[in-house]
Design brief:
By secondary structure, the chain is of the alpha/beta class. Helix content is 35%, strand content 19%. The strands form two sheets. The chain has a seven-stranded mixed beta sheet, with helices on both faces. Strands 10-9-8-11-13-12-14 form a seven-stranded mixed beta sheet, with helices on both faces.
Length: 436
């Protein structure tokens, strides 16, 4: 978690969770007065409230960014009332994290209670994960991420760490874990249309595409800016961009910016363009027109209707043009799609499609925590996907019709960049999945 987050822990107990995370502002709520006394002793700078969740008329904390319900829903009398209250207290970017026990472990937990290793509670429901999801959705939430944890709750030297970190996240095995972690966001409807959009186009050796590209970009918002970032072209891409943007500089409600890239790689160009962007929504569009610009409204609509918070283009849904993607590239893209779906905890079929769209406010938060995943990404796609997943943003695939480029050659090296993808996958695995 980033230090500036505001965290509300409902059912905080002795404050052990809040003690482990580094945030400046937090509030703990619990009905166990003795546990709260220990929490206040350990963390005197926090705010601790002795009250049942159902008894609150207003929010215990204004505008919380993260609301934690750890082992709470199994014990409250009416889960839907609690979740409805939590929904009322949430803002558009809040994330609710629900931790519950697996029903498979119920006999073991009963035994632990008999042996005095766990506090007993006769009213515990042990809600199955599917029921937790159903109750969240009924209460106005959408699931953004599911995780599993703890195969070995009792410490056994060497074995416990290996099992909890490396085995617990694996397919099939993860269903045997003690706890289920579900992250959700509140669904909300926007009150008005999108006012501004920024389109960032990284261009290198694409002079033959620039005129057609600019002419085909649709109007997506009342205030629209197109930001070209040119990087080290050996043809006349730079001058072509200058000429073509000057030609259309009088377009009403549309502005053009042209930057010369300081660093190397598409990822660096995208970051430079996003840093300059001012629109509510920021998006990447490839300069080779392999993704038709006419399909951009679908991405804006997905965000404006709150279908998602990160719209990821996928080229693997519709039939492609004959030479749009080589066979080995197709296999690689499908393989990495499966791998990153596992790592991100959300379905992402095509990680390398150049069109990705998100709210600029989310990008600002993502960029402030970018160092978490290092600087390996030469494309910009994985930097955004990893960051969006870490923030609990809802990612949705948006199918596009993939076209063959008509000028120049691709800037992607199949094997060299494929090796980089594997390295980035390892980094993501260590930061997002295997963290026990």
């Amino acid at each position: 978690m980033t230090p500036d987050l505001r965290v509300l822990d409902l059912g905080c107990g002795e404050g052990s969770l809040l003690e482990q995370i580094s945030v400046l502002s937090y509030v703990g709520v619990d009905i166990d007065e003795k546990a709260l006394s220990k929490a206040e002793e350990a963390l005197p700078q926090g705010t601790w409230i002795h009250r049942a969740i159902e008894d609150f008329e207003g929010p215990p904390m204004p505008n919380p960014d993260t609301i934690v319900l750890s082992m709470v829903l199994d014990e409250v009398r009416d889960v839907q009332i609690v979740l409805s209250r939590v929904h009322e207290w949430s803002h558009a970017r809040s994330r609710t994290v629900v931790v519950t026990y697996s029903r498979l472990w119920r006999p073991v937990l009963w035994l632990a209670e008999l042996l005095g290793l766990k506090t007993g509670n006769q009213s515990e429901s042990y809600l199955p994960r599917q029921e937790v999801q159903n109750l969240l959705e009924v209460s106005g939430f959408e699931i953004t991420k599911r995780q599993y944890g703890i195969l070995s709750p009792i410490w056994v030297p060497f074995l416990s760490r290996f099992a909890n970190k490396w085995l617990a996240p694996l397919p099939i095995i993860r269903h045997l874990c003690l706890v289920h972690v579900t992250t959700a966001r509140p669904l909300r409807k926007r009150s008005g249309p999108i006012e501004s959009v920024s389109i960032v186009i990284a261009a290198r050796n694409e002079s033959g595409h620039i005129r057609e590209l600019i002419d085909r970009i649709p109007k997506l918002a009342h205030d629209q800016e197109v930001i070209f970032v040119e990087g080290g072209s050996t043809d006349n891409t730079w001058q072509t961009i200058i000429d073509e943007t000057n030609r259309l500089s009088g377009r009403k409600g549309e502005r053009f910016h042209v930057l010369r890239q300081n660093g190397k790689g598409k990822g660096d160009a995208v970051r430079q363009g996003f840093a300059m962007a001012t629109g509510e929504i920021v998006m990447i569009l490839d300069a080779d027109i392999s993704v038709p610009p006419e399909e951009l409204p679908k991405f804006v609509e997905a965000l404006s209707r709150d279908v998602c918070e990160f719209a990821n283009g996928t080229r693997l849904t519709y039939q492609m043009e004959t030479n749009a993607m080589k066979f080995l590239n197709m296999l690689g893209n499908k393989g990495f799609g499966l791998l990153f779906t596992f790592l991100l905890g959300q379905p992402v079929r095509d990680t390398l499609c150049g069109t990705k769209v998100m709210w600029r406010s989310d990008y600002v938060r993502l960029a402030s925590n970018r160092s978490r995943f290092g600087s390996l990404d030469p494309f910009g796609d994985f930097d955004l996907l990893f960051g969006a997943s870490a923030m609990g943003l809802r990612i949705r695939d948006i199918p596009i019709h993939y076209k063959e480029r008509t000028y120049g050659e691709t800037n992607i090296s199949r094997f060299r960049h494929g090796w980089l993808l594997l390295r980035m996958a390892f980094v993501a695995a260590s930061r997002l999945k295997f963290v026990g």
